[in-house]
Specification:
Elements (H helix, E strand, L loop, with lengths): L1 H29 L5 E4 L1 H7 L1 H38 L5 H54 L4 E4 L12 E2 L1 H11 L6
Parallel strand pairs: 1-2, 1-3
Helix pairs in contact: 2-3, 2-5, 3-4, 4-5
Length: 185
């Protein structure tokens, strides 16, 4: 899965670069200056109303789950402390049983923690994917309205240098929020 994502990303980068270079050469041949725009897509996503709501929702979910994990961790600490306090009076068989019980609960806790982190990342990616798609359409509209030849994503570190680049991130956020208004209920 990871290898597929890397290959897909690299293919997208190569295609983007090829398209960009062909646009540069076409602009150069036509004799007009190349108009370049820059968008900080990551920042735009987080500044949109949808992005803010998604972040709040995810943080709320994460906070409650973190509290559950903290409670489990505290129970494990108490179990370990109880074992250490009782160790001198327990038989060897009881010590082994308690240690196995502790190890089982510790492994379950660690697995729950890993699962939680993966799930949180997945939820965030899913929530932000739809916003990203909408931002792409907004960028296309603004680019056509303002006659940009190229628009680069500032946060993706794809652009190394752009003289006379115009940052249209605020325009993207404003238009996104007007186009994708949520009914407040």
């Amino acid at each position: 899965m990871k290898r597929f994502m890397v290959k897909s990303f690299l293919t997208l980068v190569v295609l983007s670069m090829a398209t960009s270079f062909s646009s540069v050469f076409a602009a150069e041949k036509s004799g007009h200056d190349l108009k370049v725009g820059i968008v900080d897509v990551q920042s735009a996503i987080l500044q949109t109303n949808d992005g803010k709501l998604a972040r709040q929702k995810i943080e709320k979910e994460v906070t409650s789950k973190k509290q559950e994990l903290m409670n489990q961790q505290n129970q494990l600490k108490k179990l370990q402390e109880d074992f250490q306090a009782q160790q001198s009076v327990l038989s060897d068989a009881d010590k082994i049983t308690k240690q196995k019980e502790f190890q089982t609960k510790l492994q379950a806790f660690q697995q729950a923690q890993i699962s939680f982190e993966q799930e949180a990342r997945q939820r965030e990616a899913t929530a932000l994917q739809k916003i990203f798609q909408n931002i792409q359409s907004v960028v296309q509209k603004i680019s056509k309205q303002k006659n940009f030849d190229l628009v680069f994503d500032k946060s993706a570190a794809v652009l190394l240098y752009a003289a006379n680049g115009t940052d249209i991130t605020n325009d993207v956020v404003t238009q996104y929020n007007s186009e994708f208004k949520k009914d407040k209920k």
